[in-house]
Amino acid sequence: MVFWEENMKKMVKLGVVSTLSLVVGASAAFAENVKIAFIDPLSGPFASTGTNGLHQFEFAAQHMVNDQGGVLGGTNFEIVAFDNKISPKESLIQLQVAIDQGIRYIVQGNSSGVANALTEAIAKHNRRNPDSRVLFLNYAAVDPALTNDKCNFWHFRFDANADIKMDALTDVMSADESLKNVYIIGQDYSFGKAVAAAAVANLTEKRPDVEIVGNELHPIGKVKDFTPYSRKIIASEADAVITGNWGADMLGLGKSLIENGYDGPIYTYYAAGSGITAAFGETAKGRIRLISQGNINPIGSEEARETYNAFKEKYPDGNIDQSRIFNVIGMLSTAIEAAGTADDVVAVANQLEGMEYDSMWGTKLFMRPQDHQVIQNLNVGVHTNDNVEFDYDNSGFGIVTESTVEMASMDSPTTCKMKRP
C-alpha cells in the first residue's frame, strides 16, 4: 500500500494522473478528452492558492462542460495537474512533459515570473513545431508586459492586468478627499514592480496632492516576519497602503500591519480566500479592500448562485475566489464549439479573439483582439461579515462589492504588435 501511494504521488507530480478523473484501465476513453494542463504550485508556501485554483478548474470543467454533454457532441474536458513549485525553471520542465503527453491547452496564473517564462517557451515551441502547437490561457498572471511588448498570438489573459486594476482602484481611492499619504509595498519580481509603477503613475495623475511616503519591495515567499516593514509603514503616517501581495505574503503582511496597530485601509489585489479571509477574520473588517472581477456578494446571477452552492457541496472547505477560472472554461468551450475542433488550436484562437462572452458572474467579457487582454467590469469590495451570502474559508467573512468600474480600461493603449500564424 505504501509503495502504491508513493508511486501515485510521483505520477501526479509528473502530470501522469488526471486530477479530474482516475479510472484504472480507462486510457482509451481518456484519449479523446480535451486535456488542459494546470501548471501552478501544489507544494511549498503557495500550495493552498494553487490547490484551491485547481479545484475550481476541476469543478468548472465538470459542471460547465462534462455534465452538459461535453463539447463537439460528447468530448469531455480533463484537467491534468502539474506542480511547478512556483519555479519558472520547474514550470518549463512540466510544460515539456505536458506537450509530450499531447496536451494542447495550458492554464497558469500564480506568478507573472512563471507566466513570462511559459509564454516565451510556448511561442518558441509553436514556431518550431507547427504540428503540436499549444495555447496558453493565463487566468491570473497580470504583468502588463504579457499583453504589451511580450504579447504573442498563443497567449490569452482572462484577468485584468496590473495597470488596468490599478487604474480602477485609484479611481476609487482618488475620490477619498481625506487621503493624503500612501505607502506602496510589494513582492520583488515583475508583478510587484508593475503594481508599484502603476500606483505611482495613477496617483500622480489623479491626485498630485497625495504624497507617496514609501515604495519598497521585499523578497517573494521568503519573509517570515513582516514586523520591520509594518513598523516603517506606521512610522510613515500613511493614510492607506497599496499592495499586490498574494498567498502567504499577503497574509503575512496584512496580519503584521493590523497586529502592529495600523488602522488605515489596505488596498489589495489578492487578499481573499485560500485561508486568508479566515485568518484575517474580525481584525480586518472594513480595513481590507480588494480589486477583483465577478460579483459574489451580491451574487451575479441565479446560475452563479447554483454553481457556487454546488461547488461548496463538493468542496466544503473551498472557495470560488477566482471566478475568472469559470470564464476560462466557458470561453474555451465556446471557442472550440465555434471552431468545430479542439485539435486545431489556431482555429480555436481565432474564435477567442474578439469574443464577447456573458459571464454568469454578472458581466460581459470582451477578449480584445489586438493584445488578447480580456476587458470586463472591475469591482472594489471590502472584507466584512455584513450582507455576506457567500463567505470564504467558512469564516462568515467575505468580500462585498462597494463600487464598480464598468468595462475597465476598454480603450487603454497597448504596445502589442501581434504576429499571427
UniProtKB/TrEMBL annotation:
Residues 1-31 form the signal peptide. CDD domains: PBP1_SBP-like. InterPro entries: BCAA_transport, Leu-bd, Leu_Ile_Val-bd, Peripla_BP_I. Keywords: Amino-acid transport, Signal, Transport. Gene3D superfamilies: 3.40.50.2300. It comes from the Bacteria. Residues 34-380 form the Leucine-binding protein domain. Belongs to the leucine-binding protein family. This is Branched-chain amino acid ABC transporter substrate-binding protein. It comes from Pseudophaeobacter arcticus.
